[in-house]
């Protein structure tokens, strides 16, 4: 005979489920409000985010100048900012000069490649005649002409995007300078402004988040540099044009895990196919696959020995979700945001456990000109 359902236990389980559901809805509502507010203030938040990413990359140099060579904070921040601008200008020159010098040759080969595809399509098994191809081209031209108004709108949108990008870059550079100059004073100041336990919890989470963000940016930069060197050497040996721009593209896209490597590899194989043919394109594809395997199994485990605490599947899902929500920006920020969420979750779990860890030491004040730093920000 089956056991009878206990009404009291059923009502208790139902009440507990309803209570947890209400709490979950409130948390989700609060998260939605925070995201909505961030969206409204994104024009201000985005330069801050870019400045933080740049600061994590350049802070080791500024720290060395301040605490080893005893430079003044403003002088160290100014030098690092100017050095960063010089490096960025050099990268732009490295990309622009080869592209400009080889653009004519590449455009000719692209036309030849299109003609080859046209001749292949005209033969078996497709047997597309010239009339079919001409009709398709005429239809494409008519579609473009009918969309002239949309093209104007897209052009204006593109100009607006470029202007916003320039403004964001300028603001991010100014903020990076101030972060490099006054960053070590931020956490002690923040601790003095917050009441009660918040004066301990918020600086502790901020310190862990900063360490995690810095580890991610610097490790990705180092791994991207290794990828760019090895892939660039492979492209140079094969004889593919635009080696330097492709190597720089590989380095930049390394900051977008998984998806960035696929995009850079696709561009390199496409240029090899257009310029050198199928055989060299397959060789380049093999080189890229080999380097990516070395990256995933050798480089990253060595460089990111402590890791971000994120499984590879979580990284892939985070990049996919970020890209679907906010495009390239979402893909770029997906992994750091997921890592910071993990940092907050781990800290909260530690505080709610039966045996919480020892409290972290207070952040000491900035060392004097003749003192060694006791902690980094």
From TrEMBL:
Acidic residues: bias regions: 357-377
Keywords recorded for this protein, A-Z: Cell membrane, Membrane, Transmembrane, Transmembrane helix, Transport
The membrane-spanning stretches of this chain are: 12-38, 44-62, 74-97, 162-180, 228-256, 262-291, 328-348
Q: Where in the cell is it found?
A: Cell membrane
- Pfam families for the chain: AI-2E_transport (PF01594)
- Membrane topology summary: Multi-pass membrane protein
Quick one: where's region Disordered? 353-377
What InterPro entries does the entry give?
Answer: AI-2E-like (IPR002549)
Where is it predominantly found? membrane
The family note in this entry says: Belongs to the autoinducer-2 exporter (AI-2E) (TC 2.A.86) family.
Name of the protein in question: AI-2E family transporter
Organism name: Paractinoplanes pyxinae
Q: What is the lineage of its organism?
A: Bacteria, Bacillati, Actinomycetota, Actinomycetes, Micromonosporales
